[in-house]
Amino acid sequence: MAKVLELRFNTSLGKSKTMSVKDPLLTLTAENAKLAMESISALKLFQSEGVDLCASVVGARYTERIETEIFEVI
Q1: Integer Cα distance of 30 and 41 in angstroms
Q2: What is the pLDDT of residue 38?
Q3: CA distance 55 to 16
Q4: How far apart are CA 1 and CA 26, in angstroms?
Q5: Residue 1 pLDDT more than 90?
Q6: pLDDT tens readout for residues 7-52
Q7: DSSP string, 45-56
Q8: Helix (H, G, I), strand (E, B) or coil at 14
Q9: How far apart are alpha carbons 28 and 22 in whole angstroms?
């Protein structure tokens, strides 16, 4: 199973935006995750065509995905 940390934000236009982190630390607390996300939002690093993609924090969650490969062409 592959675990991913999903950081969920709202853009400055009010739309949802999710940032995914592969192989995350599994010991994050809610407080640590929220502080990190607030820092990301405050830095305004992620913008596209004048839209702030991480304008406000919505939440964070771990997700797991089970992959079962049927075949692969090499």
Answers
A1: 16
A2: 98
A3: 10
A4: 14
A5: no
A6: 999 999 999 999 999 999 999 999 999 999 999 999 999 999 999 9
A7: --EETTEETTSE
A8: coil
A9: 14
Taking CA atoms, 30 is separated from 14, 26, 43, in Å, by 23, 11, 20
Please calculate the CA angle 35-41-44 and round it to the nearest 5 degrees: 145
17: left (phi over 0), alpha (psi -120 to 50) or beta: beta
Could you tell me the maximum CA-CA distance found in the chain, to the nearest angstrom? 45
pTM above 0.90, yes or no: no
**Residue 35: what residue type?**
L
- The pLDDT score that the predictor gives to residue 10 is 98
3-class DSSP assignment, residue 32: helix
Contact criterion met (CB below 8 Å) for 59 and 8: yes
Of 70, 67, 62, 56, which is closest to residue 30 (Cα–Cα)? 62
